[in-house]
Amino acid sequence: MEAWPVFPKARLIVAALVATAGASPAMAASAQDVRCFLLSSVFAQNSQKEEGRKLARDTGLFYVGKLQGTNDAELQRMIGQQQKVNIAPADAAKEMQSCAQAVQGSLQRLQTLLPRPAPAQPRK
C-alpha cells in the first residue's frame, strides 16, 4: 500500500471534504464508496504498520463524508451487497491503494482551487 503524505493543511482539506461531501448530489454515494469505506475499516484495524493504519483511517474519513448524505435503507443495502463480495488478500491491497489514490486525487483537485497565499513581505 502506497502512502500519500498527510500534512496539517491536507488534514484541513480532508475535513472540508468530509463536511461537504454529503451536501452535493453530484457526489452521491456509490457501491465503490461503500467498498472503499469497508476496506479502509479493515486496513485501519489490521495493517501491521502504523503508517498503513493511519492511511486507512484518513481514507476512511473521506468515504464517511461521501456516505453521510445517503439514506439509511440505501446505505444498508449497499453495505449488504459489498459484504457478500469476497476479496482475495492480494486484491484487497490493490483495491485499498486505488481507494487511497482516489482520495489523493480529490485532495489535489481541491488544493488547485484554493487561493494561493500572498508572498511573505520582508521584515524591516
Could you list some keywords that capture this structure?
mainly alpha, 124 residues, disordered N terminus, 0% strand
Structure, described:
By secondary structure, the protein is an all-alpha fold. The chain has one domain (11-110). It is 69% helix and 0% strand. It contains five helices and no strands. It has helices spanning 8-21, 31-46, 50-67, 72-83, 89-113. The longest helix is centred in the C-terminal third of the chain and has 25 residues, at 89-113. It starts with 7 loop residues before the first helix and ends in an 11-residue tail after the last helix. Residues 1-7 have low confidence and may be disordered.
Distinct helical segment count: 5
Order of helices and strands: HHHHH
Shape: extended
Quickly give the structural class: mainly alpha
- Contiguous low-pLDDT stretches (5 residues minimum) are 1-7
